[in-house]
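Late entry, written up from scratch paper. The run itself happened at the end of the previous shift, but nothing got recorded in the book at the time, so transcribing now.
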Amino acid sequence: MNDDMNKYSGPRSPETLKVGEQVLNVVVDHQVFRRIRDACRDLIHTMRTLRTPSGILILAEPGMGKTLLLDLINREFSKTSQLEGNCLQVALDDAVDQRGIASAMALALGYPALPSRPTLVALNHMVGVGLERRRAAALLIDEMQHVCEGHKDITARAATDWLKVRMDTFNFPVIGAGTRVLERLAVINPQFVSRASASYVIHPFAFDDQWRQLLAAFAQAVQAVDLSIVNTTACRALHVATGGNMRMLKRLLMYACMHAATQPQKIVTLESLSKGLRDAKGDVSEASDPFQRGKS
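Output as recorded:
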């Protein structure tokens, strides 16, 4: 069971859990995502004909959909078979260095396992053979901020230099996504950033038409309960409660829909949204609950 659902405070049944899964699986391809995807698509198509190693950095606050965006880019270029032309996708952890990136790349290239004690030379050879065979359209890196966290600038420079060499040799773009910590890369390794020269920032949603369109997309995608309140009475309150953060919005709506599914009419109300807020955030005072204020 998803960890988020363990925090649900209402009665559980197969129906409520199914509703929660439906909300959790909603994918909203909003305007900012489309703008970045268009830029990535143009970059990849350009590099297929011109040898101009380049890249894109995507910066976002936690919970704004970086991983989902990379998945959408990957789906666009990946094929059902393992033919040449699809993307490689890796996620980094907080212990990343040259060996860590090389290991992640080797696994993404389809090697079933790594040597028990792989040297960097051996990993470099495996990656080189794999890239020559695969001819990847792009390398997509999630959680890329890990290369420049903490006080390890030398390690970060070496890791990104490792990437730069492969970009130059095999002519593929790097599309890296991470938190705003990734901005430090311009100081740590300006040569790498000169290649990954385009950057985009995904900000929390403002209370505007894009926010309303986002809520409307959720209301349309979720069929198990009536979510129409999100784009009318609860529109502003939801923005106050979530701060425009996509992850918090999805979590709150998931819990609220599960609460609504226990009611005969299966309609999301201010009361079910208030319960969802408490499931998502824990203790919330009445004064700081925008759904309580909305009922007055």
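Confidence is low (pLDDT under 50) at residues 80-84.
(Scratch paper discarded after transcription.)
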